[in-house]
Amino acid sequence: MSLPDMVDIADKLAYFQAITGLEDPEICSEILAAHGWDLELAVSSFTATNSESSASATAYGGGGGGGGDAHFDPATREVLDRPEPQENAAPAPSLAWKIITLPISVISGSLGLVSGAVGLGLWAAGGIISYSLGVIGFGSGSGRNAESSARLVSVSAAASEAIDFVSAFERDYGTTRPSFVGEGFMDALQRSRNAFKLLFVYLHSPDHPDTPLFCERTLCSETVAAFVNENFVSWGGSIRASEGFKMSNSLKASRYPFCAVVMAATNQRIALLQQVEGPKTAEEMLVILQRVLEESAPVLVSARLDAEERRNNIRLREEQDAAYRAALEADQARERQRREEQERLEREAAEAERKRKEEEEARERAAREAAEREAALARMRQEKAMSLGAEPEKGPNVTQVLVRFPTGERKERRFHSTALIQTLYDYVDSLGCLEVDSYNLVSNFPRVVYGADKLSLSLKEAGLHPQASLFVELTS
Predict the structure, then answer these.
(1) What angle in degrees, to the nearest 10, is found between the helix axes of 3-20 and 25-34?
(2) Closest C-alpha to 454, from 413, 410, 424
(3) pLDDT tens across 85-116, in order?
(4) Helix (H) or strand (E) segment spanning residue 197
(5) What is the mean pLDDT of residues 448-458?
(6) Per-residue pLDDT at 432
(7) Among 74, 115, 204, 371, whose Cα sits 20 to 30 Å from the Cα of 134?
(8) How would you class 18 by CB atoms within 10 Å of its CB: exposed for 0-12, middle for 13-18, buried for 19 or more?
(9) Is 172 buried (19+), middle (13-18) or exposed (0-12) by CB count in 10 A?
């Protein structure tokens, strides 16, 4: 077998032990081998129990090992039913504080505890246990297995189980109770860490004969409920539900009613500070919780002070960063304003130069057009003057015409009586005395306008022979 295959098998074996709570590596290896080393299939076969069988198995001491009378598939059942030598039996859980490995399905089913490492010390009876609150997640080599087992319990499923438990517990035992959070275990652990409190865990076995009396007289007593609500974050789960069942395996619950006080520990584990198994009176429960609280107070205070110091340092860095950014932004704003002012001056100079060139071009164009018009008029006057021919001598067939202009200027010329009215207009145009092209030749007495309708008449036909006096009337 190659080295990568051996590493993969070792990873699968470690994760299978963490998920199921089975401590014997030989049994875990045989179960995995019976399922072709398919981690997801083996875990599913181990955890897939019906509600009644799992609840019954864990309620009466079956939560700490392989699942009691749970309905496993034949391959898993054959391995679990095999007699185990006495020397390999798992030791009974003690009341000493210890580190507990959480099931991967519980961890990967929550998005809660993802943070940087925080150094904490845990005050224990007779000494100090040092640990850190680290990243709850997986290393780079376990991504594939983590993805497959993440589907076992989703975030919404864990929260739904917690909400159902709170609703059922309140319905059965009233509103005077610990304020169990309606979210998954990992989210509750995150909440307790954020609040710098311990997490009070209650695993509910509804079929256990001691459960009703314990809930009514101890857990729901005013003194215990008030003390827990004041000093702890509370999470409860039914061992009939998936997450409650897995936590009972992880905490090695061997007797009910079962309570525990935990804190987050390193990597994928929690620190079990205290477990309370079996029925207890309210006074006994208060003594136990008070002792745990007193022993854990130094580490909680230290954690709070460390967190406040970190927040202060972060706030100081943020203020320094903000001051630096403000100064940098001010410098950038001044530089931007300088550039904008320079660009504005350059644009204005360019615009002024463009306008100067446009005005110069317009003047040149106007002068050129005026010269072209003047030349065209000169050509037109010359052409019309040439079209008139020589002025005829006086005679019976010659008409004497006097034209008065609006300026008072007078012009006089002789024309053949057969010349057309258009000839008179050509004559006026050839003189260049008018600035406009639109005008009419008009006689005073009687007033007759020789407009466009009379241009084809001869002078004699128009009644202008032998002599006529006309004036130029400008039209708009």
Answers:
(1) 110
(2) 424
(3) 443 433 333 334 456 666 545 554 433 332 32
(4) none
(5) 91
(6) 80
(7) 204
(8) buried
(9) middle
